Amino acid sequence: MKVKISYKGTILIASLEGELDHHSAQYVRQKIDSELMKSSNRDMILDFSKVSFMDSSGIGVVIGRYKNIQKLSGKLIIINLNNQVRRIFEMSGLLKIIPVYDNLEDAIKNVKGNKNAAYK
Amino acid sequence: MQPINEMNLEFSSKSRNESFARVVAAAFVSQLDPTLEELADVKTAVSEAVTNAIIHGYENRDGLVKMNCKLYNNSVEITISDEGKGIENISLARQPMYTSRPDMERSGMGFTVMESFMDKIEVVSELGKGTKVTMFKTFKSIK
């Protein structure tokens, strides 16, 4: 599994590529957490468009990152879930607490929209 | 009922074998020509059972995980077994969101995923002896 890190303004975008299971989960955790620690950014978009397989270990990874970002008062958004991955997310109940979008543009708008609302 | 084909696989309890096991299971089951979604269901369920054997059965120590697959005309029966520590309370372990290892960021969804993606699962376990999970699935796309 690969994790590609990029930024859109101050938003950290982590694009996952490959199969997310218990074996690859540890690497994904370390890669994302170290990136969050070294930057002052608090908002993250997790891009699942290139995730070809995920089991419940992936849910553990997302819940862990969600908790970390909440502690920083940031926002986590997930984008581009395929059907297999979406079913596991639905089963876990995570979709009730983490927003999911079908593309990056809408996710970025959501993060920025919330920030503007918070500043008012 | 006699299976039309059967295979056995035995591998070390290493986490990199999770993908190996699910790909082997999917390749074997694909002989029946199920849909891609049905194959993904089998892959996911096998991945969950093998992960449980490695993390919980052997607690990341060395051991052997066994997989047996039996194919029938339009269905499959897959058994994943370990000779690890066993499950003390199976009904508790099967509850959604329950995990014995919250320290490992586990979601506690493993058995729930197996139950949802397969038609039926049976769990037999004995403390100190090991655990055997048998999963059944009929492929509705195959008449």
From TrEMBL, chain A:
Belongs to the anti-sigma-factor antagonist family. CDD domains: STAS_anti-anti-sigma_factors. GO terms for biological process: sporulation resulting in formation of a cellular spore. Coiled coil: none annotated. This is Anti-sigma F factor antagonist. Residues 1-111 form the STAS domain. It comes from Acetivibrio saccincola. One of its GO terms (molecular function) is antisigma factor binding. In the phosphorylated form it could act as an anti-anti-sigma factor that counteracts SpoIIAB and thus releases sigma f from inhibition. It comes from the Bacteria. Gene3D superfamilies: STAS domain. PROSITE patterns: STAS. InterPro entries: Anti-sigma_ant, Anti-sigma_F_ant, STAS_dom, STAS_dom_sf. Keywords: Phosphoprotein, Sporulation.
From TrEMBL, chain B:
This is Anti-sigma F factor. InterPro entries: Anti-sigma-factor_SerPK, Anti-sigma_F, HATPase_C_sf, HATPase_dom. GO terms for biological process: asexual sporulation; negative regulation of sporulation resulting in formation of a cellular spore; sporulation resulting in formation of a cellular spore. SMART domains: HATPase_c. It is an enzyme of class 2 (transferase). Its EC number is 2.7.11.1. Belongs to the anti-sigma-factor family. It comes from Acetivibrio saccincola. GO terms for molecular function: ATP binding; protein serine/threonine kinase activity; sigma factor antagonist activity. Binds to sigma F and blocks its ability to form an RNA polymerase holoenzyme (E-sigma F). Phosphorylates SpoIIAA on a serine residue. This phosphorylation may enable SpoIIAA to act as an anti-anti-sigma factor that counteracts SpoIIAB and thus releases sigma F from inhibition. Pfam families: HATPase_c_2. Keywords: ATP-binding, Kinase, Nucleotide-binding, Serine/threonine-protein kinase, Sporulation, Transferase. It catalyses: L-threonyl-[protein] + ATP = O-phospho-L-threonyl-[protein] + ADP + H(+); L-seryl-[protein] + ATP = O-phospho-L-seryl-[protein] + ADP + H(+). Residues 37-141 form the Histidine kinase/HSP90-like ATPase domain. The keyword Ribosomal protein does not apply. Transmembrane segments: none annotated. The keyword Transferase applies.
